[in-house]
Amino acid sequence: MxxxxxxxxxxxxxxxxxxxxERWGKQILVRPDPQAIWESPRKDSRWRNPDGRYFRSSxxxxxxxxxxxxxxxxxxxxxxxxxxxxxxxxxxxxxPEQAANWDFAMEKIRKAGRxxxxxxxFGYTGAASVACAAAGAQVCHVDAAKGMVAWAxxxxxxxxxxxxxxxxxxxxxxxxxxxxIRRGKTYDAIxxxxxxxxxxxxxxxxxxxxxxxxxxxxxxxxxxxxxxFIVLNSYTTGLAPSVLGYLLHTxxxxxxxxxxxWNELGLPCTASGMALPCGATGRWMSE
Length: 287
Known about the structure:
Elements: E1 2-3, E2 10-16, E3 19-24, E4 27-32, E5 52-56, E6 62-65, E7 73-77, E8 80-84, H1 99-111, E9 117-121, H2 127-134, E10 138-143, H3 146-158, E11 166-170, H4 173-183, E12 189-192, E13 197-199, E14 205-207, H5 208-219, E15 229-234, H6 241-256, E16 259-268, E17 275-285
Parallel strand pairs: 1-16, 4-5, 9-10, 9-12, 10-11, 12-15
Antiparallel strand pairs: 2-3, 3-4, 5-6, 7-8, 13-14, 15-17, 16-17
Helix pairs in contact: 1-2
């Protein structure tokens, strides 16, 4: 498991019985988590009086009980700074376990010894884009949601990267990649965080299990002649990390060489000393 253990402003305090107790800066949240199916004694008193708690509805969705929780606040990860905002479907705008991938990407970029162009697809609120730009890369950030791209720009500004070479694109990721291929644009590194399920701007249905292979095959068409790395994330329940690795091996290693690694992402839990599984990642790297 690749564990994101470099945080100071985020802490997984405890988890169990389908929920997790978290510290985001000074704010304490309780959110559902489908992986935490064991029982916790819940000795931490903050379980009973968090600043905010997300309740699932039996009919789908859910709602926040925010109490005195501010509408938004900031947290830092090393030299990066992000805006946190409790949103629908329990999200906060940051997936803290992805810090393991931010560190990986930043190290690869810094050690490359040459200019690196990064394409971040399904870029969400831009944490990976900001991390890559902070490491010195030129970044193209793509997401279909205008609000998420605006939030990503805000995060770049908070991290002192308002003038960094980042292209902010509001578009369907597959259609954007198709146009980049026609334009002859290439990238040295690609980060992808495709959703499990979604609909495109024209109502097209996206199902990860059905669409990921052809999408990844399409994306390899914008790799440069000397690519550095690819990061492929998945939060789809039941999709093993090895599947991501096999996809990358089939579509990238056979053409470019290099090697592939895959693993779960995890967050260390203070109360138990264990790590909570938080999704899967496959990584291809040139060396």
